Structure formats: C-alpha cells, structure tokens
Amino acid sequence: MSALLSAGAKGGDATGSNVRSELDIAVSKVKWRILPLFVVMFIANYIDRVNIGFVRSHLQTDLGIGAAAFGLGAGLFFVAYAVFEVPSNILQQRFGAKAWLTRIMFTWGVVATGMAFITGETSFYVMRLLLGVAEAGFFPGVVYYFTQWLPNSERGKAMAIFLSGSALASVISGPLSGALLQIEGGGFHGWQWMFIIEGAASIVLCLVVWFRLDSHPRDAKWLTDSERKALAEVIDAEQKEREANRPKHVSSLALLKDGRIALFCFVYFAIQLTIYGATFWLPSIIKKMGHFSDFQIGLFNSIPWLISIVAMYIFASLAARFKHQQMWVAIALVVAACGMFMSTTSGPVFAFVAICFAAIGFKAASSLFWPIPQGYLDARIAAGVIALINSLGNLGGFVAPATFGYLEQKTGSIQGGLYGLAAASVVAAALVFLTKKRRR
Fold it and tell me: How does it sit in the membrane (predicted)?
C-alpha cells in the first residue's frame, strides 16, 4: 500500500510537471508570435499619431497654420479617440481581435496618408479627428488581448515590452521623419511625402497582421492540443479566482462607478498630459537651440526617448524586485515633475537636457501604471474599463498641445504650460497611493 501511494504521488507530480511544461511552452510560443508584431504595430501607430510635431513650421509656411491652430489640431485627435474608444473595444469582442485590429490599422493608415492632402486649418482639423476615430481601440484592444492569451504572471512583462514600442517609435520617428522631410518632387513637398510614406507603411503592415494574428487560443493552429488546453485552463482558473474575490451580483455599471476607476483615469491623464506636451513641442524647443536641418532636429529628438527606454526597464526591474507598484509610479512621476520644472529655469539647451531627465519619469510611469488597474479589474468588464481609462487619460493629449499652442500664440512662451505639467505630475504622484487595494 505504501509503495502504491508513493508511486501514485510520483505519477501525480509527473503529471503536474508535464502540464506546467506544456503551459511554459505555450506561453513562450504566444510571446514570440504576438509581442514582436504588437511592438511593430505600436511603432507605426505612434509615428502616424505624432509625426505632425516635425512639420509644424512647414504647415505654417505652406498652409498658414499658426501655433494655436496647430495645437488645437494636434489635440483634436484625442477627443475623437476618447469618444470612440469604448465602442471600438466592444466591437472587438464581437468581431474578434484579428478582424478588428486589422481594420483599425488599415483605416488609420489610410487617414494618415490622407494628411498629405490637407489645404488649411479646417481640413487639418477634420483629418486629425478622423485619425482619432480610426485609431480608437488599438491600445486597450491589445491590453485586453493579453488577458485572453497570457497568465497574470506574464502580462506585466508583456506590457513592458509592448509599451517599449512607443519609446522605440519616439527614437525612430525623429530621424525617419527628418529624412523624409528632405524629399522633394512629384508635385509634393517633403512634409507631404512624410505623411504618404509613413501612412502607406501601416497599410502594408495590415497584411502581416491578418495572416499572423488569431483571435483566441482555440484558433491557434501553431499550438498543440495539449498546449491550448494548458493555456486555457490557467486563464480560466485565474478568471474564476477574480470572480470569487468580487461581491456577488456585481454589475458592470457599479464597477465603473468605483472611485478607484476615477483615480486611474486621472493618474493616466497626468502621465499622458506630460508625454504629449513634450512630444508635440520638443522639436520646436530643439529648433531654438541652433540652426539645424530637419534631419538633425530628428536626431536630437531621439535622445530623450532613447534614455527613457533604458529607464523603463530599470524601473520595471526595481518594481519586480521590490514589490510596491504605486510607490514606483509615484517616484517616476516626481522625476517627471522635477524635469519639467527645471526646463523653465534657463535657455533652450538646458530645457532640452531637463526634458531628457523628465522623459525618464513620464515614460517609466506610463509602463508601470497599467499593472495596477489590470490587477484590480474583473476580466468580465476589463476591456470596457481599460478603454475608458485609456480614452479619458489620453485627453491629456488634447489639453497639452492645445494649451501650449494658445500660450505660445498669446504670450510667445510655453513656460506656463511647463509649470502646469510639473504640478499635474506631483498631484498624480500623491493620488496614485489611493489606488492601493485595501484588504477586506
């Protein structure tokens, strides 16, 4: 009897070990298949969203679009993005990630290409609004995709890799856009060629997305039956555990009214406010440093984002080792606040150095933020709430450039806006501690 029990225990251990092995293999395959694709998609997405920062002076010279109009147009993207993001994420659940994410990328590529044919302020506003409608749902759609394909223990790492796409895009977009701006011919100016080429690249990438992406693990023919089963069992078990820890009969509306959801929205709003304030106005700050070509401005523009990539991984490693996600987000936000404040104290060269320092904070805060709401939300409403947080938070992308443009046109300086970014980061650093989940 003792021998039989011993053999049974060993058999059980072997079975558990085998299941774990199948899960590890499945997770590894998922990460290698989808993460590089999502990073490339995010790079294309980010470039098409922010490349107008490099053509501000060209739009003013060729089309008469001034600072206030430029800031408003840059920000209108985020208004449309906020309005249409939640419906877009709901439609993704209906049509599946493969079809919907491909649709998102195709339409934003078409609109981004169409930016080459704007003729003045009105068409500029319309195309930026349409670009926001087209892109709406991409980011939260990918975040939700992770909840369907990866266990909890892997999502934080996947998010860090995915978010590195925006930092890589910021590094790439400067030299790339600067080089494309030097193209002349075919009846188009350099800024038009930039929009055409960068938008067309997104359209071509749609083919890769369509053939590479699957909507659900059950559709993945590149996984074995046992790997699909192991992955599905773990993800289903984690969802049941989240449901068990929630009050019974909780409605989606009740969760959406949760005070922590409002805090998540504000903290992310403050992060995005600073990111897009720097993104859209950094090329103009660099231009004041000296007589540089568009390509040289693009090279300088890459420096803060290159630094931020290293910072994101250092902060992520520290947060993984010393477990207190809210504390690390707060530290990153304080670093961002200090950098933005210092950028107001001297000339354009010092301002550029200070923004390099600020980038360490606001990009690290962006990647460290998402595991907090992900760990709090029930997967049954995760897609809608993640979209809500992202869309309302991204309104910082409207407020920052619109305010900066107005201030520059009225006062000739953006110093007041930089003070505002520093203050918002300090407030968010304090409020992020209120998102800590209390023990019941």
Answer: Multi-pass membrane protein
> 51: which DSSP letter?
G
Number of H helices, E strands in the chain: 18, 0
Report CA-CA distances (Å) from 157 to 150, 262, 370, 408. Answer: 10, 25, 11, 40
Q: Look up residue 142 and give its two tokens.
A: 């990918």
pLDDT tens digits, 402-415: 887 778 777 777 77
Please give the Cα distance from 282 to 315 (Å, whole number). 24
415 φ/ψ angles, rounded to the nearest 5 degrees? -60, -40
Instruction: Indicate the CATH number for domain 23-435.
Output: 1.20.1250.20
| Buried b or exposed e, range 75-109, using 16+ CB within 10 angstroms | bbbbbbbbebbbebbebbeeebbbebbbbbbbbbb
Among 196, 340, 123, 365, CA closest to 267: 365
Say how far apart CA 311 and CA 360 lie, in whole Å: 5
Residue type, 168: L
Over residues 240-272, the pLDDT tens digits come to 776 665 545 444 455 557 778 888 888 899 898
Domain definitions of the chain by residue range: 23-435
pLDDT value at position 5?
40
CA–chain centroid gap for 358, Å, is: 18
Indicate the pTM of the whole model.
Answer: 0.77
Please state, in angstroms and rounded to a whole number, the distance separating the CA atoms of residues 127 and 52: 12
Which is more confident, 242 or 180? 180
Is the confidence at residue 211, as pLDDT, over 80? yes
Task: Say which residue the tokens 């058999």 belong to.
Answer: 11
- Identify the residue whose tokens are 């290293």: 310
Report the C-alpha gap between 247 and 378 in whole angstroms. Answer: 11
